Amino acid sequence: MSPEQSFQIINDMIGRARKNYNSTISFYLLLWGMILVISPWLDHGLKLMGVEYHFLVWILLAAAGVIIGVIHGIQLGKNKQAPSILDKVVLAIWISCSVSFFLMFILQFAGYLKGPEFFLISGIGCFASGWILKFKPLQIGGLSFWIITPIFYLFPEYWKELMTLGILIGYVYPGIALRKHVKNAK
Fold it and tell me: Whole-prediction pTM value?
């Protein structure tokens, strides 16, 4: 096999993985983007209203996101063809990120973390997926998470605004861009 043929096979695999994952990733980016944009503001609003357990909104919305995500994943799994190696790599990245999010969530409620550390893991998931799939908006999303993380510590009083900005750039923008990319490809 010539180097050109090898390169073409790799590009074909990337193209197939990108096509397979564009609609899937966009769904999850938009799902979690909306949950994570709504959660801090709803929590803050409930706290101002005097609701004692206002912070439970995070757990309830996260649980709803997990349930919706699992149901969506099961439905996709029934209709999916055999995954390529790139499909498996991107899936492994996001499974790793999800396990890390879960463990960090527990550590945060135990008082060991402040919260912005979640952005570091999001940066890894978005940037690595964007790099593998050759999709710049995901790479930009990953970079934005990494840039915003230290800003959280410099301006902790603006955590809701910074979180919203990070989620909009890191999840929502790439999710919308992927969705448009899928529609334009049809």
Answer: 0.81
